[in-house]
Specification:
Elements lengths: L1 E6 L9 H15 L3 E6 L7 H10 L2 E4 L24 H12 L4 E5 L16 E4 L7 H7 L11 H8 L4 E4 L2 H10 L3 E4 L32 E6 L4 H13 L10 E6 L6 H4 L4 E4 L4 H7 L2 E4 L9 H8 L4 E3 L19 H12 L2 H29 L5 H15 L15
Parallel strand pairs: 1-2, 1-4, 2-3, 4-5, 5-6, 6-7, 8-9, 8-11, 9-10, 11-12
Length: 415
Amino acid sequence: MQVLVTSPIPTHPQNHGNRARVYSLCRTLQQRGYKVHFVYGGLEGVSPEQELAMRATWDHVYIVPYEQKRRKQSKRTHHLIDDWYVPAVTEITQRILKVWDIDYCLANYVWFSRWLLDVPAGIPKYLDTHDMFANRNKNMKKDGLSAKWYSTTPAEEAKALNRADVVLAIQSSEAAVFQKITKTQVATLGHYIPPNFLSAPDATPDSAPDKKQGSSNNRKLKVGYLASNNPINQHSLHKLVQELPHHPHLLDTVSLHLAGAICGCDVAQDSPFEKRGFVDKLETFYEEMDIILNPNLGGTGLKIKSVEALSYGKPLVATYDAMIGIETSEKDHLHKTLNSLLEGLSDLAGNPSAVEALVLNGRVVFTRYSKAQKHTLDEIFPEKTRADSEQASGQAKTQAGGKSGEKSGGQGEIA
């Protein structure tokens, strides 16, 4: 089975939530028996290291050269749906479709979906939305966030949704909105990653033990926040740092650790967080931390780092906004304010049994969430064995509209 995937962003390294999303879905498809033709639209440029990593991961890779000033905004108040589209993506995908016998087409982002219009009838077309972009900047301003990225209207977004046979919403509330503006089938597919539950860190002191304490059992808990440098994360960190002085005794019991690109922002420089910078291996950071924070405020889409923390089996203390799209009743996952979040963190620091309970509850939450995503995957991208792949491919084509004939072509890349 062959799947053609386009993305305006690279898959490597996975140091942003959207990259992690594209990577995890493509890897899941490979594990299900699909060969991935990955077309990178060049919207962010690519380093030689990134290109090598992508070519080593995907079955076939096609890269559009980066061009400055590619992004535009046709309207004063919003973007048109194809303002950020790169026409070269259509040229490349058309050439791939002529040479390879492609079974599925998958576009990432509504504003990068133009090529789906030119896919031959009979090949199922999927659109992974990642987020809602109708009135996005307006909604971000309401949350006190900088509004400088792509934002369009419901009518323009509907144009993109109508190009697909199946629209993938990253969480159920967004699926409900999409279903109101399109007749296309809408499925909810969150961030599917396998569980990698880690053991608790060794009970070694975070710093030299206090003489009065006389025991490493009273060590400070390591509390970690790993995030990219996007405006939502910067805003959330800024508000968290502002709230910290109202909890003067918290830093007597915990040490705060910051990792990821967010370490480079101005707020991080004047904060009590120890800055770890980029981490080569996520597992190493999560393994070292006792508790993971996600103080997210506002925004839409799914907070990938919440799913990620749960997948490692770590105790997660998060805001309500950080858990939208993830079903949970755990109180430490649903703090309505940062004051509440820090109070919850303070309570955990003095209560090892509560931390253990949070670990167990989080693993239940993740297992249920992961099972729901797997169910959706089974419905839209069924797992194929080598034995039945060819037969299933022929059946899918017949059911999808009678694509006939096999494409000729060798195993080489299309330039």
